Amino acid sequence: MSYDKEHGFVESVRRFFWLPGEVPRRVSPVGPLVGGWFVFAVVGAGFIAVDWIDGFVPVVVGTVLALLDDVIKGVRHRWPAFVIGLGVGWAVGRLVRTGVPAPADPDWASYPGLLCGSLAAFLAFAAITRLPEVPRAR
């Protein structure tokens, strides 16, 4: 198992959940998130078109992994942004699925909701990381 030799395994796990105070926290860049969204959308549509696997898999897994990548990098408000982003994505996906009439093909029925939900998750995550930092009491 790979871990930071300087800090040890326990410190590496602790650092994943709680960054030290001196570590700078940046905002999440929007460009790579939107670019990743386009890639996941195309891959999911391709999977549905060739009837290989459900388009749900690349869109949802890609969304979670892209957000988790920014969390690991240590963006500002990372865990609240991750949880709220996924919650917003799920809610928007459900709203779009119930509000938009489904296409005749059942493979494509949930895809508009998936795409709108994943884009909403990315945008909510990026917006929350842009909130100002709370000054830490010393």
Please supply descriptive tags for the structure shown above.
5 helices; 0% strand; mainly alpha; 138 residues; elongated
A few lines on this structure:
The chain has 138 residues and is mainly α. The chain is built from five helices and no strands.
Distance N to C terminus? 35 Å
Mean pLDDT: 81
**Helix-residue proportion:** 55-70%
Structural class: mainly alpha
Gross morphology is elongated
- SS field, number of helical segments: 5
- State the major sheet: none
Model description:
The protein is mainly alpha-helical and 138 residues long. It is 64% helix and 0% strand. The chain contains 5 helices and no strands. The protein has helices spanning 9-17, 30-49, 56-73, 78-99, 111-129. The chain is elongated. The relative contact order is 0.16.
